[in-house]
Amino acid sequence: GQSLEQPSEVTAVEGAIVQINCTYQTSGFYGLSWYQQHDGGAPTFLSYNALDGLEETGRFSSFLSRSDSYGYLLLQELQMKDSASYFCAVSGNTPLVFGKGTRLSVIA
Amino acid sequence: DGGITQSPKYLFRKEGQNVTLSCEQNLNHDAMYWYRQDPGQGLRLIYYSQIVNDFQKGDIAEGYSVSREKKESFPLTVTSAQKNPTAFYLCASSTRASGSPGDEQFFGPGTRLTVL
Q1: Which of B50, B56, B60, B104 is the mutation pick for testing A, counting most A CBs within 10 A?
Q2: pLDDT tier for residue B102 given thresholds of 50, 70 and 90
Q3: What is the pLDDT at residue B98?
Q4: Staple A31 to which of A43, A50, B45, B72, CB 3.0 to 4.6 Å?
């Protein structure tokens, strides 16, 4: 089977940096994705890592270590609009399996 | 304007009634998915379809049924057999079911179903 672990809640200050970790157990691993969901809204795709290392897209970066079955999402220069839930998801022999999500609260 | 639509946004039903949730996409995607979202539970896969006239059960298919007669449409029926149907239902589509770049999932706005 597949399972993912990520913290349920994180709080950070506006302008700061925050890291959301994700560990996974899966068979047939292809890659790790991250999605953002604002309250009441639809999840939107943020990033995908298939290989070890860091992928950067603007203020957001995502990291993967396949040997450690671990990844993280790094958000820099936090803004109030970044307050949302963030889901990691693994792709493998079955469609995406999502973690339970990390609720990020950005405070002034 | 390409996208994925779900209707209605809010739906109320009496216990024991079947209800069908609509999902339509004009992204020309082969794969479509239905998820259920409960507070603190993340996204749980109900059913998915990789091609017209074919679909597979996800992790929580009991009490639900789907059809995929057209590429654009993937309706979900919540039957009276579903013991706790009140939830937020999300439909998604992707080019394929691999999850890799270019195959990321695009989500509809969701339908919030309340069973009274």
Answers
A1: B104
A2: low
A3: 66
A4: A50
Q: Quick one: closest CA in A to B105, which residue?
A: A45
Structure tokens, A79:
């803004």
Q: Do residues B47 and B55 lie in contact, with contact meaning Cβ atoms separated by under 8 Å?
A: yes
As given in the structure block, the two tokens for residue B44 are 């749980």
Please provide the DSSP assignment of B63-101 as one string: TEEE--SBTTB--EEE-TT-S---EEEEEEEESSSS-ST
Smallest CA-to-CA distance from B93 within B61, B56, B49, B60 is with B49
Radius of gyration of chain A (CA): 13
Whether residue B99 and residue A90 make contact (CB cut-off 8 A), yes or no, is yes
**Is some CB atom of chain A closer than 8 A to the CB atom of B48?**
yes
Which amino acid is present at A1? G
pLDDT above 80 (res B2): no
Confidence (pLDDT) at B99: 60
Question: What pairing do the DSSP bridges indicate for beta strands A102-107 and A9-13?
Answer: parallel
A78, A95 in Cβ contact below 8 A? Answer: no
